[in-house]
Amino acid sequence: MIGRRVIVIGGGAAGLMAAGQAAENGAETLLLEKMKRPGRKLCITGKGRGNITNIEETAEFIAHFGKTGSFLHQAFSRFFNTDLMDFFKELGLELVTERGGRVFPAGSTASDLLSVLLQWLNQCGVKVKCTSCVDKLLTSKGRITGVVSRKKKIPCDAVILATGGASYPATGSTGDGYQFAKSAGHTIVPIRPALVPLETAGSAAGKMAGLNLRNINVKMLVNNRKRKEAFGEMTFAKFGVTGPVILTLSSGAVKAMSEGQKVSLSIDLKPALDEKKLDARLLRDLSSRRDEPLSSFLRGLMPREMVPVCISLTEISPDLKSSRVSAKQRRRLKTWLKDFQLEVTGNRPFTEAIITAGGVDTREINPRTMESLRIKGLYIAGEILDIQADTGGYNLQAAFSTGWLAGCSASLSST
Questions:
Q1: CATH, residue 15
Q2: For the segment 165-223, what is each residue's pLDDT rounded down to a tens digit?
């Protein structure tokens, strides 16, 4: 008996998982990748280390995806973090769990992920064709009949659309799939960069370019009201700010700015001290270092690169002796340390975004199968869907889970 013919478009995390799963279930599977080799974006995930998932429980995990996270319940109930970890271990890839529940290959390189996945596809009998752009989907009477690639018609029983988003276009993730989905009748929620560095007003950030701060708390303010906050690490750049904390807050910032709202960041440089304790420390240190100029005193409170910025924004003379700092100036300094604000004016482009927000409306996808509710035999998985989370392994797990489910469904469906 001849198995179903399945075509997977896109060789990223979702596409690789979908193709292998379809083949394991007996489907004659063809993976079409437009780049010279698949998995290029996978190789740069987790800063090149491949943060494949997180060990959080389902409810907490899904909460990282916001409003559209509930769509993932079905996929996660079938193939979740422990399943993914077991899957890679069975392929011979050792894993380690690090701070924050993040899971990485023990060899600390995402290329290890790609290597074992490609070996698996080869063992499953998946035919991988690179430098194979898809021109369009072929449909008849409301169902998929094939695709056109390099002007050649390729018939099939099912197509899995796993082309990724529009971030890091140099890896092949250029947003092609949105047009394919739209041609099949799907609604595309407007896309925007997510997990992306933010641009800020003024010269303060640029003066501290390259400075990395750890263990700080950052609040995102929308129209001067706190919307979200995150604790951890951030980095200043010529254009503004980046780093894990900023990337976590960026999706909400970009969305708010697209709606015409004012966005700013409030940085707490001393989160371990409340205002009363910080004031007591300032009084004590100003007294014990009374003969030092303020510029020298401040180096005991913050990195050297921040001192000129602090002096400029608090408008206190750098030559003022510590013993001469007035109560008003001390309060100004305390406020700055707990609430250093930067106005957000924009975000970096898709070329610098880790993922894409927006995409195919999940209300038009069957969450139990990943099949389109518009066209029979069309399955959609991965970043092309309107599902996105913050950093920590959540997005890659979603890609693997939806890809796994799409591969199973496409290979077994008899509709």
A1: 3.50.50.60
A2: 988 777 777 789 999 999 999 999 999 999 999 999 999 999 999 999 999 999 999 99
Same structural domain, 80 and 216: no
Residue with tokens 């199968």: 369
Indicate the average pLDDT of the chain. 94
pTM for the structure as a whole = 0.89
| Structural contact between residues 254 and 262, judged by C-beta atoms closer than 8 angstroms | no
Helix (H, G, I), strand (E, B) or coil at 8: strand
Residue 395 in 3-state DSSP? helix
Residue 393 token pair: 């392994």
Q: Residues 204, 146: one domain?
A: no
The answer to whether 163 and 137 are in contact (CB under 8 A) is no
Q: What is the pLDDT of residue 339?
A: 97
What pLDDT, on the 0 to 100 scale, is given for residue 175?
Answer: 85
Helix, strand, coil percent values for the chain (each to nearest 5)? 40, 25, 35
- Asked if residue 406 lies in contact with residue 162, where contact means CB atoms within 8 angstroms, the answer is yes
CA 390, 398, 393, 26: dihedral to nearest 10 degrees?
A: -160
Sheet holding 102-105, edge to edge: 53-54, 102-105, 95-98
- Beta pairing class for 240-242 and 134-140: unpaired
Nearest to 265 by CA among 204, 307, 309: 204
| Residue that terminates a domain, selected from 299, 322, 347 | 347
Q: Is the pLDDT of residue 414 over 60?
A: no
180 and 213 in one domain? no
Question: Which residue range is the domain that position 24 belongs to?
Answer: 5-192+355-412
Asked if residue 328 and residue 262 are part of one domain, the reply reads yes
Confidence check: pLDDT of 330 > 50: yes
Summarised one tens digit per residue, pLDDT across range 101-118 is 999 999 768 888 999 999
**What single string gives the DSSP state of each residue in 95-135?**
EEEEGGGEEEETTS-HHHHHHHHHHHHHHHT-EEE-S--EE
Number of domains in the chain: 2
CA 98 – CA 94 distance, rounded (Å): 13
Distance, in Å, from the CA atom of 390 to the CA atom of 240, rounded to the nearest integer, reads 19
Extract the tokens encoding 53: 């998932």
- CA–chain centroid gap for 333, Å, is 35
Examine the fold and report which residue of 347, 371, 398 is the final residue of a domain before the chain moves on: 347
Residue of 262, 257, 178 lying closest to 221 (CA atoms): 262
Q: Which amino acid is at 239?
A: F
